[in-house]
Specification:
Blueprint: E1 2-5, H1 18-35, E2 41-46, E3 51-56, H2 86-96, E4 100-105, E5 110-119, E6 125-134, E7 146-151, H3 155-163, E8 174-177, E9 180-183, E10 191-194, E11 197-201, E12 208-211, H4 227-241, H5 244-250, H6 266-280, E13 284-287, H7 290-298, E14 302-305, H8 308-315, H9 318-334, H10 337-348, H11 354-374
Parallel strand pairs: 10-12, 13-14
Antiparallel strand pairs: 1-6, 2-3, 3-7, 4-5, 4-7, 5-6, 8-9, 9-12, 10-11
Helix pairs in contact: 1-2, 1-3, 6-8, 10-11
Length: about 375
């Protein structure tokens, strides 16, 4: 029997539990199947024995992978994980929680049995230690060459695992895009998955998302996704769906901040603009900050605060442009003739001779006198 002591504390990633540890094993198994479609993933759970098994058809574990940082996935964008830490950390977490872990590494005729052991090297601190046994003859040839067996998984544990793993769920609504899927069911709102595995929850998010692994990169502890990535790719997914109700909702929410107004179909831009004017009136102008609000007020319009994305969509609507142009004409006609003529005179006087300018301002004086008489 060989013994391999890892240089990692038993208290590493203290916030992790059975859900996060299972996610790491699942992640590796999914990645192996992604890399090679024939290397099918294997999973089952027996509630009576409280044993969970995860594996692959023809994977194997090299002893070198017990070294932190050793991974075969570092440059593969299709893979969920790429830090070379996952299964070691998951093992530590399970052992810390009092679960048993056994690796049946059939291709190498090995059985790995990790335990937490008091280390002489580290003054008696508990550290994960892998005991590797060679098994010359197996009683029965397994259908899968690598199986990880975790004991002590209670039905309550499994329920938590299942709720955070889309691969273990059925009958839920998802709309696929080239970036991943939007999850419509209310229970998924705010939840972010990558490759079907739950990563985190963001209270600002108004939809549920399952990103494809190659789209976003996870933080080192796999506990979060970069917030810019979430907003940017959520917007791309919504644009791709071209669903009117989803787009309308997103334009005023966290998921729609980066929606490009030109990606919204022209008829939908007109519909959104019409809704805006019907709600706020024909003189309403969408604005997204206080500075714009003051400018619009000075011009005699009614500023209405909306998101920048929605403002851009409305302003690029042909229907809005036509109605605004018509309103501008009506507003211009309603202004006193003297004011309008003054503006016109100022614009053209540098093109006229002195005598022509004098005549022009004589007309202005006459207009002023006429307006005074009418008053």
């Amino acid at each position: 029997m060989r013994k391999y002591e890892l240089s990692i504390s038993a208290d590493y990633v203290p916030e992790w539990g059975v859900v996060e540890a299972t996610r790491e094993f699942f992640q590796n198994s999914i990645d192996e199947q992604t890399r090679d479609g024939s290397n099918k993933m294997f999973f089952n759970y027996d509630s009576e024995t409280q044993v969970m098994r995860i594996g692959n058809k023809h994977s194997d574990l090299d002893i070198k992978t017990l070294l932190f940082g050793v991974t075969t996935k570092a440059k593969d964008s299709e893979m969920i994980g790429n830090h070379g830490e996952g299964y070691k950390i998951a093992t530590v977490v399970f052992l810390r929680l009092g679960k048993s872990v056994v690796f049946y590494n059939y291709c190498r005729r090995e059985i790995w049995r990790p335990r937490l052991v008091k280390s002489r090297k580290y003054d008696g601190a508990l550290v994960p230690t892998f005991f590797v046994e060679n098994e010359a003859i197996w009683k029965e040839v397994p259908e899968h060459s690598l199986i990880i067996e975790v004991g002590g998984i209670t039905p309550e544990d499994y329920e938590k695992i299942q709720s955070c793993n889309l691969h273990l769920q059925e009958n839920y609504s998802r709309r696929e895009t080239s970036y991943g899927a939007i999850l419509d069911d209310e229970e998924y709102i705010g939840h972010i998955f990558v490759g079907g595995l739950h990563i985190c929850k963001d209270q600002r998010l108004d939809i549920g998302i399952d990103f494809k692994p190659k789209i976003v990169r996870l933080e080192r502890d796999r506990s979060m996704v970069n917030s810019f990535d979430v907003q940017w790719y959520a917007a791309r997914m919504i644009e791709e769906l071209k669903d009117a109700e989803t787009t309308k909702k997103a334009l005023e929410s966290y998921s729609g901040v980066y929606i490009n107004s030109y990606s919204v179909p022209a008829e939908l831009r007109d519909e959104i603009a019409e809704d805006f004017m019907n709600t706020h009136g024909a003189k309403a102008v969408p604005v997204s900050d206080q500075g714009d609000m003051e400018k619009i007020k000075k011009r005699g319009y009614k500023p209405v605060i909306v998101s920048q994305a929605k403002r851009d969509v409305i302003l690029k609507s042909e229907l809005y442009a036509d109605i605004k142009a018509e309103n501008d004409k009506e507003r211009e006609k309603a202004r006193p003739l003297y004011d309008r003529f003054c503006e016109f005179a100022e614009k053209i006087e540098n093109r006229l001779e002195e005598s022509e300018v004098a005549t022009l301002y004589e007309f202005l004086d006459e207009i002023s006198e006429l307006e005074e008489k009418e008053e």
